[in-house]
Specification:
2 strands, mainly alpha, 6 helices, 151 residues
Length: 151
Protein backbone atom coordinates (compact mmCIF):
# COMPACT_ATOMS: atom_id res chain seq x y z
CA UNK A 1 0.00 0.00 0.00
CA UNK A 2 1.39 3.39 -0.90
CA UNK A 3 1.79 6.22 1.57
CA UNK A 4 -0.86 8.21 -0.30
CA UNK A 5 -3.29 5.27 -0.07
CA UNK A 6 -2.65 4.89 3.66
CA UNK A 7 -3.44 8.55 4.33
CA UNK A 8 -6.60 8.40 2.21
CA UNK A 9 -7.70 5.32 4.12
CA UNK A 10 -6.86 6.98 7.44
CA UNK A 11 -9.29 9.78 6.65
CA UNK A 12 -12.03 7.24 5.90
CA UNK A 13 -11.22 5.14 8.99
CA UNK A 14 -11.25 8.15 11.29
CA UNK A 15 -14.58 9.29 9.85
CA UNK A 16 -16.33 5.92 9.72
CA UNK A 17 -14.98 3.97 12.71
CA UNK A 18 -17.24 3.42 15.69
CA UNK A 19 -14.24 4.40 17.79
CA UNK A 20 -10.49 4.53 17.38
CA UNK A 21 -7.46 5.60 19.37
CA UNK A 22 -3.71 5.65 18.94
CA UNK A 23 -1.12 5.59 21.72
CA UNK A 24 2.66 5.77 21.75
CA UNK A 25 5.49 5.29 24.18
CA UNK A 26 8.84 7.02 24.03
CA UNK A 27 12.17 5.33 23.37
CA UNK A 28 13.14 5.37 27.04
CA UNK A 29 10.11 3.27 28.01
CA UNK A 30 10.65 0.89 25.09
CA UNK A 31 14.26 0.40 26.22
CA UNK A 32 13.08 -0.22 29.77
CA UNK A 33 10.37 -2.81 29.06
CA UNK A 34 11.35 -4.09 25.56
CA UNK A 35 9.59 -3.66 22.23
CA UNK A 36 7.04 -6.47 22.69
CA UNK A 37 5.88 -5.24 26.10
CA UNK A 38 5.84 -1.66 24.80
CA UNK A 39 3.68 -2.69 21.83
CA UNK A 40 1.18 -4.42 24.09
CA UNK A 41 1.21 -1.54 26.57
CA UNK A 42 0.52 0.89 23.71
CA UNK A 43 -2.39 -1.26 22.57
CA UNK A 44 -3.78 -1.25 26.12
CA UNK A 45 -3.37 2.54 26.31
CA UNK A 46 -5.22 2.90 23.01
CA UNK A 47 -8.02 0.61 24.21
CA UNK A 48 -8.29 2.76 27.35
CA UNK A 49 -9.05 5.76 25.13
CA UNK A 50 -11.83 4.17 23.10
CA UNK A 51 -15.29 5.71 23.35
CA UNK A 52 -16.84 2.25 23.05
CA UNK A 53 -15.69 -0.70 25.16
CA UNK A 54 -14.82 -3.63 22.91
CA UNK A 55 -16.61 -6.93 23.44
CA UNK A 56 -13.72 -8.92 21.96
CA UNK A 57 -10.20 -7.94 20.91
CA UNK A 58 -8.37 -9.29 17.87
CA UNK A 59 -4.67 -8.52 17.55
CA UNK A 60 -2.26 -8.88 14.65
CA UNK A 61 0.58 -11.23 15.54
CA UNK A 62 1.02 -13.92 18.13
CA UNK A 63 1.37 -12.02 21.42
CA UNK A 64 -0.98 -9.99 23.55
CA UNK A 65 -1.62 -9.74 27.28
CA UNK A 66 -5.09 -9.91 28.77
CA UNK A 67 -6.87 -6.58 28.89
CA UNK A 68 -9.22 -6.53 31.83
CA UNK A 69 -11.99 -9.08 31.44
CA UNK A 70 -12.22 -8.76 27.65
CA UNK A 71 -11.43 -11.94 25.74
CA UNK A 72 -8.93 -11.68 22.90
CA UNK A 73 -7.37 -13.64 20.08
CA UNK A 74 -4.06 -13.13 18.33
CA UNK A 75 -4.00 -13.70 14.58
CA UNK A 76 -0.77 -14.07 12.64
CA UNK A 77 -0.96 -11.90 9.51
CA UNK A 78 -4.28 -10.64 10.80
CA UNK A 79 -4.00 -7.40 8.85
CA UNK A 80 -4.56 -9.43 5.69
CA UNK A 81 -7.55 -11.27 7.17
CA UNK A 82 -9.59 -8.72 9.14
CA UNK A 83 -10.49 -5.17 8.14
CA UNK A 84 -10.39 -3.93 11.74
CA UNK A 85 -6.80 -5.13 12.15
CA UNK A 86 -5.86 -3.66 8.76
CA UNK A 87 -7.46 -0.36 9.81
CA UNK A 88 -5.52 -0.38 13.09
CA UNK A 89 -2.31 -1.01 11.12
CA UNK A 90 -3.05 1.94 8.82
CA UNK A 91 -3.69 4.22 11.79
CA UNK A 92 -0.55 3.07 13.61
CA UNK A 93 1.63 3.52 10.52
CA UNK A 94 0.29 6.92 9.51
CA UNK A 95 0.37 8.41 13.00
CA UNK A 96 3.91 7.07 13.42
CA UNK A 97 4.87 8.58 10.07
CA UNK A 98 3.41 11.91 11.23
CA UNK A 99 5.68 11.70 14.28
CA UNK A 100 8.69 10.94 12.06
CA UNK A 101 7.93 14.06 9.98
CA UNK A 102 7.70 16.12 13.17
CA UNK A 103 11.05 14.97 14.56
CA UNK A 104 12.63 15.38 11.12
CA UNK A 105 12.17 19.13 11.54
CA UNK A 106 13.99 18.92 14.88
CA UNK A 107 16.82 16.66 13.69
CA UNK A 108 16.89 16.82 9.86
CA UNK A 109 20.34 15.23 9.62
CA UNK A 110 18.77 11.81 10.32
CA UNK A 111 16.38 12.11 7.36
CA UNK A 112 13.44 10.65 9.27
CA UNK A 113 11.17 12.18 6.62
CA UNK A 114 12.47 9.57 4.20
CA UNK A 115 13.53 6.57 6.29
CA UNK A 116 10.74 6.80 8.91
CA UNK A 117 13.17 5.59 11.56
CA UNK A 118 14.20 2.39 9.83
CA UNK A 119 17.93 1.69 10.10
CA UNK A 120 18.86 2.46 6.49
CA UNK A 121 22.50 2.93 5.52
CA UNK A 122 22.00 6.72 5.48
CA UNK A 123 20.36 6.70 8.90
CA UNK A 124 23.18 4.59 10.36
CA UNK A 125 25.75 6.94 8.79
CA UNK A 126 24.02 9.91 10.45
CA UNK A 127 24.14 8.13 13.81
CA UNK A 128 27.84 7.43 13.32
CA UNK A 129 28.46 11.09 12.47
CA UNK A 130 26.09 12.90 14.89
CA UNK A 131 25.40 10.38 17.63
CA UNK A 132 21.92 9.55 18.87
CA UNK A 133 18.93 11.65 19.91
CA UNK A 134 16.34 11.17 22.66
CA UNK A 135 14.22 9.47 19.98
CA UNK A 136 16.70 6.65 19.38
CA UNK A 137 16.32 3.44 21.33
CA UNK A 138 19.54 2.68 23.15
CA UNK A 139 18.90 -1.07 23.38
CA UNK A 140 18.52 -1.35 19.61
CA UNK A 141 21.84 -2.06 17.93
CA UNK A 142 22.20 1.16 15.98
CA UNK A 143 25.64 0.62 14.51
CA UNK A 144 27.64 -2.41 13.48
CA UNK A 145 30.55 -2.84 15.79
CA UNK A 146 33.67 -4.82 15.17
CA UNK A 147 35.96 -6.26 17.75
CA UNK A 148 39.44 -4.80 17.39
CA UNK A 149 42.52 -6.47 18.73
CA UNK A 150 45.02 -4.30 20.54
CA UNK A 151 48.71 -5.17 19.89
Amino acid sequence: MTEKDRYQLRDIICKEAISYAVAKLDAEVIDEINILNASVRSMHLAINQLDTKPEFIIVDGNRFYQYGDIKHQTIVKGDGKYMSIAAASVLAKTFRDDFMLKIDTEFPQYNWRKNKGYPTADHRAAIAKYGITPYHRRTFRLLDTQLELQF
